[in-house]
Amino acid sequence: MKKANFLFILLALAAMNSMAQTKKTVSAEQAKMNAFISGLMAKMTVDEKIGQLNLVTGGEATTGSTVSTDVEAKIAKGSVGGIFSMTTPEKIRKTQEVAMKSRLKIPLIFGQDVIHGYKTTFPIPLALAASWDLPMIQNSARIAATEASADGINWTFSPMVDISRDARWGRISEGSGEDTFLGSEIAKVMVKGYQGDDLKKINTIMACVKHFALYGAAESGRDYNTTDMSLDRMYNDYLPPYKAALDAGAGSIMVSFNDINGVPATANKWLLTDLLRKQWGFDGFVVSDYTGVSELIEHGLGDLQTVSAKSLNAGNDMDMVSEGFLTTLKKSLQEGKVTLAQINNSCRLILEAKYKLGLFEDPYRHCNDERAKNEILTPANLKAAREAATQSFVLLKNDNKTLPLKKSGTIALVGPLANTRANMPGTWSVNADLVNTPSLLEGLQNVAGNKVKIVHALGANLTADATLQTHSTMFGRDIPRDNRPEEEIIEEAVKIAKNADVVVAALGESSEMSGESSSRTDIGIPETQKKLLAALLKTGKPVVLVLFTGRPLAIKWESENVPAILNVWFGGIQSANAIGDVLFGDVNPSGKLPVTFPQNVGQVPIYYSHKNTGRPLAEGKWFTKFRSNYLDVSNDPLYPFGYGLSYTTFGYSDIKLSSNTLTKGKSITATVTVTNNGAVEGKEVVQLYTRDLVGSSTRPVKELKGFQKISLKAGESKEVSFTISENDLKFYNSDLKYIAEPGDFKLFIGANSHDVKESAFTLK
Ligand code: BGC
């Protein structure tokens, strides 16, 4: 064994010992399940057992060039354990009926990427995270589960909890951003929302945490790329959200595509067995990602038989689409390359999931046409989606009180994203209705009332390059394109802008410019749109930039020149109405960035909880020779983590600490008074950070440890208190022991990771 690997395992084992291993006692319900499954497995042939490990696609949404074939025949033979990407009670019932005619009548499990809502599409996950509203996020998952289960689905490939600090990575849109604490809190409530307190209830579905692990740290932000990471960063920053989701009871976990320190996750025994099973005690099932098993061939690990055996041996239970398990595991068993015990173990875990979902009692439990008719896209669900979207928008700038807009006069609405319905729901919304979702133009008209005249022009194409636009509008997410010369298209918009009272420019990314396989090296607003913006500003009219994006964008020029910027991400199928609600001031924006916005792409990865280095740059400085900085740009972010404005302003008092000494086993309280100093009611996300000043290993300059979203009427003050105990100060040290080290700490409370009040205490 290589020395590095040996060290790695030793450290992992040490971490294992430091985590309390809970001894499992078997409940009566579990004993019943075990007996049932043992009885069933006693009747199963090896082929049937391997069949359970095979997950095929129903073909409604595919994310690779391989698609499943002869599905019905395979089901009839008992060669399929589950199907994903198939919807409606009718189709699912028909397919389940085939399974019910197979020799042992083992029900299929039906999966789907229900990512941010089902048909009632909520804001993309990064946007939901920007709400910092945990009950609301949980409710979005609850509604998604109700709708998906009403449409035949038992299992969702969500939540996606990959921490990402790289805005180039397109899938940063699918997660909760850069922060471990916020990401973990969201991971928990998403699982609770999907699974409820009982998976046998008719409206709950099983969660599948993804992508395990470290997928968000792909080198250069290029999707599917290699990840190479220290154990310090892994344990302290990237792994906790997966663990949080599993501790919240997630029934399954999906393996990521990436290579981790030399071993792709899909074949990584340390990851899937030592960490996941032995250290964390996970007892649900593991599924590969789409063709993750056969991709091990390209990774350079061998032929299909070899990689399939490696993947099973590593701890992967289910093979999504590759059919490597189905076609080679029996041979590997005969050749002694895998054991029957391993096949049995994986088969059992998958059968257990079906049992927990109640599928053995009623394989058609989610096939109810009445539910499909009555429980999807209900007015209540649409209302929840609209409210969620309003909570997710982040007001980045609002000079001269440009916003809110008046409900009178003429508004020129321009930009390639103003009049498209298909672009509104956001990436990974395979069930969204792209035809009947209101466009921004329609949403503004809905909210504005009859005293406002809204005039519209395209103003610019999404990108000047037609091919890039095609790549950025796949899956039917069309955006109108005008083939006239750029200047002519801009001129038309400038003309209507000149006759308007205010200009709303709907610019940024298309929904498919982020998401899977949508990495970018230029994270700005496309050049042709920027030219439009510059021309609009020249008119002298107030300009509001409604910024669509699935990632932090480098918008330094825009932030210096445009008076008002509302970042709306992609807000789901109600986003147009929600943008109207916020632009016209019916709702006061309260979102806060769950991810740092850089000044330029060269600063990426940039995140607030970085280490100090031995040569930190002094606060407020741009460049000092021999300090850790850049020649051409300061170290500051454009907008820090946690940042977001409101139509009102909030004042923070100094911090009151109940004591400056925190004794192990006890707690202290930190309190601030927050005051709404403006004229309108608003919500504020009050954030608590700490800094461990001296450690046995280096510690971040700030770490989020708590937050509270409060609502304050104009002029109102509220006390906000946080309790801090030793547990909040724990981290994995260089021996991977999870400990809090006595010593001095700073404590910060404020409106974002930068603007904070400061205090200090000592852990004794
Ligand atoms: C994605 C997963 C998704 C799966 C199934 C893959 O390409 O990485 O996030 O769940 O496809 O659709």
UniProtKB/TrEMBL annotation:
The keyword Signal applies. The keyword Signal applies. Its EC number is 3.2.1.21. Coiled coil: none annotated. GO terms for molecular function: beta-glucosidase activity. Keywords: Carbohydrate metabolism, Glycosidase, Hydrolase, Signal. Residues 1-20 form the signal peptide. Residues 684-753 form the Fibronectin type III-like domain. It is an enzyme of class 3 (hydrolase). InterPro entries: Cellulose_deg_GH3, Fn3-like, GH, Glyco_hydro_3_AS, Glyco_hydro_3_C, Glyco_hydro_3_C_sf, Glyco_hydro_3_N, Glyco_hydro_3_N_sf. Belongs to the glycosyl hydrolase 3 family. PANTHER family: BETA-GLUCOSIDASE (PTHR42715). This is Beta-glucosidase BglX. It comes from Pedobacter punctiformis.
